[in-house]
Amino acid sequence: MNTIENIHNQTIIVQTSYHPTPHLETEMEVIERLLEQNNTIYWLICKKDFKVCFNNPTHEKWTCNVCVSRVKAGIKEVYKNIKNPDKLKVIEYADYLDYNEYTNNALLKFEFNSLSDLKKYKFNGYDVGMATASSLVSFTRNHLPKLEEHSKFIENGIKTGAYLFEAFSNIASLVKPNLVILFNGRFIENRPLLRVCQQNKINYVTHERGGKLDTFLFRVNSIPHSIETVSQEMEMLWETATDDKEDIGKRFYTNRIQRVEDAWYSFTKEQQEGRLPESFNHIEGKKVVTIFNSSLDEYEGLEGFGPYFYENDNLGIKQIAESLSQHENIKLYLRIHPNLKGLDNAQNDFIKNELEPLEQLEIIGAQDSVDTYALINKSDIIIVFGSTVGAEAAFAGKNVILLGKAAYEKLNCFYIPKSHEETIEAITSNDFKFPNIDASETLKYGYWNENFGNKYQNYQPINIAKGTYKGKKIKANPVIRELRRLFNR
Questions:
Q1: For residue 403, what pLDDT is reported?
Q2: Segment (H or E) for 43
């Protein structure tokens, strides 16, 4: 696992870009701990430079003001705590490149025919289009947003990304950092730094939430969503464990069944324990196959994610359902991911218009109180496109077909077909032999979830979105917060 303790006597740039708890507090902790190890820190902050960002996608004035104020409070707190203030330097983008001067003269493109075209757009070798698309999908919660409705977002996103790429190139050439630390690496405001580091062979770290509320991810030269890195961490943690790893691995699954919110929100806590679809009373003797879909917006902006051979989850589900239409001995369910509840987006439109009319497919809505875990236990085959449910079903001893990239895909407890035809063969053939479930394999994933990340020393979580830093809540100026509340109202 990557830790902070072995970083000494280096020149480091830390970017602050996402101020909500616990991310600002994570950066504060990282900075304080690195300063204790005789590192020189350049703390790169935003003074309304981002015209689009994850926290404030529409560049709303008072949200910017609150963010700037809270970061200022964080800086003040760190300076109060450290013994070597000469080693900490707060810097701003505008000191290295003027936004208006640069964006007015840069030959940037803002009009695209499709999301695919936007993703392909690069500027000076930087994939500014992919970063903009990723942020747009997250903002709209729609994997296929209508570009014409978000032209201003796209223009501001491309301007922001191109500006930050050039500004940080200037900063890196002058500061000459040994290491750059940034949040996540996926969004408009972070991806430019990631790409500058990769192009110039500068070591970098991405930080995010850890596996528990009291931990944070600190990943060297990789991003939080790297399947390859996660697989390596999983094996390393399991092989080097000195505690009761089997029991800890099991705890991850039992906590999820019990709807424990110890790292992120539980999507199943509103479901009624033990409840099954009414149709279960009329399907005796049939093979029960349940598909669990994913919310497409969660991975649309990420490279290397998605189904192995289907274009996307929606089209894969439709093709599977159509191929099973003549198999009356099979009952096919689709459990909609609870995270899609209430969304007006392209995925839900497809489900309503293309999947609901299919007589051979029974859909369990995102808001339905049917119990996911009861459904797993009563199904003969579980099909997933990367959802954590795949690992949970394998832990329960179920036959699982994995159709898309997943953090647990290298574990030996799933069947991964190579084509649609192989998928249908696995579902329909009574002679098909699924891989034997190796219980210890599923426990590796559970153990990793319970253990990845670094323990906080200064930040104390209260819940998922609240906590204190050395016993103090880091807040924006109360007048600014009240003004934002009034203007928003």
A1: 96
A2: strand 40-45
- Whether domain 4-227+453-472 has CATH 3.40.50: yes
Which residues lie below 8 Å from residue 482, measured CB to CB, with a gap of 6+? none
User: Is the CATH number 3.90.25.10 carried by domain 247-449?
Assistant: no
- CA-to-CA distance for 93 and 402, rounded, in angstroms? 44
The domain segmentation of the chain, as residue ranges, is: 4-227+453-472, 247-449
Cα 173 to Cα 122, 125, 168, 169, 177: the distances in Å are 21, 17, 8, 6, 8
State residue 16's pLDDT score: 96
Residues of the chain short of pLDDT 70, as ranges, are: 1-2, 261, 263-267, 269, 301-304
Asked if 4-227+453-472 and 247-449 have one fold, the answer is yes
Q: What SS3 class is residue 359? A: coil
**Chain position carrying tokens 């998928």:** 423
pLDDT digits (tens, 9 = 90+) for 22-74: 999 999 999 999 999 999 999 999 999 999 999 999 999 999 999 999 999 99
Please give the DSSP secondary-structure letter assigned to residue 437.
P
**Could you tell me if 301 and 137 are in contact, meaning their C-beta atoms sit under 8 angstroms apart?**
yes
Q: In which element (H, E) is residue 378 found? A: helix 372-378
Task: List the structure tokens of 40.
Answer: 């020189």
Stated length of the chain: 489
Alpha-carbon gap, residue 191 to 187, rounded angstroms = 6
